[in-house]
Amino acid sequence: MLTEVVFYDTMRQGLWVALTISVPILTVALVTGVAIGLVQALTSIQEMTLTFVPKLAAIGAVFWISMSFMTEALVSFFHDRIVPLIIGG
Question: What parts of the sequence cross the membrane (predicted)?
């Protein structure tokens, strides 16, 4: 029987996994955005694509690099937490 404690603990672990796999991409997006914003402020260039293209490239590169970590974390959460709940309950 699935109790509220098990449900909330599973949700907590799922949110933690979501946070840990999103941190690399969000950090790179933040750092790239601040760096490009600083360059724009220093040079007075206000081009919209100047912020979009480098940020998209950086996010794509970090996603490609950290894809194995993200997949491993999600599969581990699924096998360690979700599958036993399905089988046992």
Answer: 15-38, 50-70
Instruction: Write the pLDDT tens digit of every residue in 14-49.
Output: 999 999 999 999 999 999 999 999 998 898 888 877
Sequence-ordered list of residues with C-beta below 8 angstroms from that of 13, at least 6 positions apart, any chain: 77, 81
**Residues 6 or more apart from 82 whose CB is under 8 A from it?**
10
Q: Report which secondary-structure segment, H or E, holds 7.
A: helix 4-43
- The pLDDT tens digits of the residues spanning 76-86 come to 999 999 999 88
* 89, two tokens: 């309950």
Q: How many other C-beta atoms are found inside a 10 Å radius of the C-beta of residue 88? A: 9
- φ/ψ region of 44 (left if φ > 0, alpha if ψ in -120 to 50, else beta) reads left
Using alpha carbons, list the distances in angstroms from residue 81 to 3, 15, 22, 23, 68: 14, 13, 20, 22, 19
